Amino acid sequence: MKMQNLKTLISKKASGMPSPRFRIENGDRNSTAGSRADYVPAPRLVLTVLLALALGFGVRSKLLGQSAGPANPGLALVGGTIYVTPTDKPIRNGIVMIQDRRISAVGSKASLPVPPNFQSVDCSGKTITAGFWNSHVHFFERKWDNAADTPAPELTRQLQDMFTRYGFTSVFDLGSRLENTRHIRERIQSEEVLGPRIRSTGEVLIAPGAMPADNILRILGEMPLRNLEVRSAAEAQEASKRLLEMGVDGIKIHLQPPPPPEPPFPRDAIQAAVIRAHEVKKPVFVHPGSGADVIAAIQAGVDVVAHTTPASGPWDDSITTGIKDRSVALTPTLTIWKSSMRHDRISAQDTFTAVAVGQLRTWVASGGTVLFGTDIGAIDYDPSEEYALMSRAGLSFRQILASLTTAPAAQFRDSERLGRIAVGLEADLVVLKDDPSRDARGFADVAYTVQGGKIIYRSAQ
After folding, report:
1. In which residue ranges of the chain is pLDDT below 70?
2. How many other C-beta atoms can be found within 10 angstroms of the C-beta atom of residue 156?
């Protein structure tokens, strides 16, 4: 009965008007025979409706969390070895409790009993860390095209294969069609699909003619991409301004030289883009092609050097001096060099990779920050080889863990929300099957991935 009809009925009853009689079903929906049970006086019906409304309000109050019990059951990860940060002493046989998307408690299992309404996950023999960041990814493969209309289960599976099965709860996309990537991000944020937090630079600043033709991109499995060609510092500022107004999370500059006679990306244009981005506190990434490019990027004030440059030979002090004071970071992307040379002789692959590993070693020895990044989207998804090569470069288990957690959170101004296991922070966590301090490849062997307090990936084994 509509509310207006109910009001009219009550008004008629109060004024002494005769009450109509209403027919109701007697339990046999197929029966058409009338009986005294088929009819009730209007006042009785009014009371029935009012009671139903009252009960409805009570149910709604409970659904809104106004009942005595909590609205959402919590989650407890129990019995694992917890690395709250890469530098703190681990908590053995620990427990992490999560409620309302945030970490509510962390400590030893003996001192923190699990509340009865919590879902408990046995993590005995496993390792628990903050959620991983991959700070160099791409959403330019053809599979991501038309992301707004890709069925949710399929999109979730693609995100799982690429990211969440390896513990990545945050990623930085360094080159894709912004509008399309934004659709992926929005569908994750709405919880329609399961995937990582996504930051993106969108389209990239390049020199005129430096972008491969569309048919070449299709052969490589990529979508056509309309990057922004820059010929001067003024054009770099204007292009950066346009991208920032579109809502990008950073600016990416690709220093790939174009075929002659086109000029390379102007050196002063790098700094012009940096100035524009830093006005709104957004980071700038540079893809270098040589050691000279790395020097130019550092001098221009970029935030992240997006690759090593093994084709230019070993790095020395002329490249890495001052990187610690400038707070510039490096995503080494060591695996991509072996991948890009997979058609060459194995000895050439080994030599090329060894140079990249040495460059990372030099960077770390100079005090530079390292952010884990694989250029995923351009290479195979499994990051285990990247972890092994970082270990070969001399990075300890804790240094690799920092590159996955605290370092990117600090570099991208998100340390108050992500990157550590601490009460009040977003519950982005990884449960590893074993202890990666014994073998760096163990960072890729994930049992559970938790984002915002929700398990978004669990291993079949």
Report:
1. 1-72, 213-214, 219
2. 20
